[in-house]
Amino acid sequence: MLDALEQFLRDYTSLAGPAFGLIAFGESLVLAGVFIPATPILFLVGTLLGSGTLGPAAILPWAFAGAIGGTWVSWHLGRRSSHGIYASRHFVPHRRQIARTRLYFRRWGGISLILGRYVLGPFQSLLPFVAGVAGMPGRRFHAWNTLSGSIWVIAVLAPGYIVGSGVVIPFFDLVDQRNFALGLLALSLALMIGGVAGVGFRAVKGRRLS
């Protein structure tokens, strides 16, 4: 899949921005983000940016819009819901993750929208929805969401960009940098696969109990 995506981005560079924005949007959308393998795609796009195949002006605006837009939709859906939504059949299989996310939001408030992208793993897309259900004011949410989305885009593209551009970091040669970036990629993939497997296991278990 990644090989096909890379070839597509190389052949149709004018569509790379919208395609990447759509991926960032889906990764930030409540529950849908669990099933989108965004990390390897983000790494791939970062390498293409670093090598000069893609230009930042064609990618970054779409990336920011997708990341911020997906989180906003999740928050908006939460605002239109009540706490009873957590008892629906769509959320019952994820009750442990939802409970953890709710506690995390209560403890950290607005800054959790930034930290949660890295702490909550594949279930980070639940956080803005939880914030919406909790009644987080729009002005406050938009400020934190804009900051969170901007930081996230830069942070997730940086490892691939470093590998693609061959930037030398002090005390690390290119081999060490590449191994470190690939290690982060492998860890992210393991977390994603674990999250998806957990969702599937709980869904099957819930059906058996019902």
Characterise the protein shown here.
With 210 residues, this protein is mainly alpha-helical. The protein has one domain (2-209). It is built from nine helices and no strands. The relative contact order is 0.14.
Residues in helices, as a percent range: over 70%
Instruction: Choose one word for the global shape.
Output: elongated
Distance between the termini: 36 Å
Determine the number of helices (DSSP H or I, runs of at least 4 residues): 9
Rg over alpha carbons: 18 Å
Count of strand segments? 0
Largest sheet: none
* Class derived from helix and strand content: mainly alpha
Q: Which parts are unreliable, with pLDDT below 50 for 5 consecutive residues or more?
A: none
Strand content: under 5%
Give average pLDDT, whole number: 77
SSE order in H/E notation? HHHHHHHHH
How many domain modules?
Answer: 1
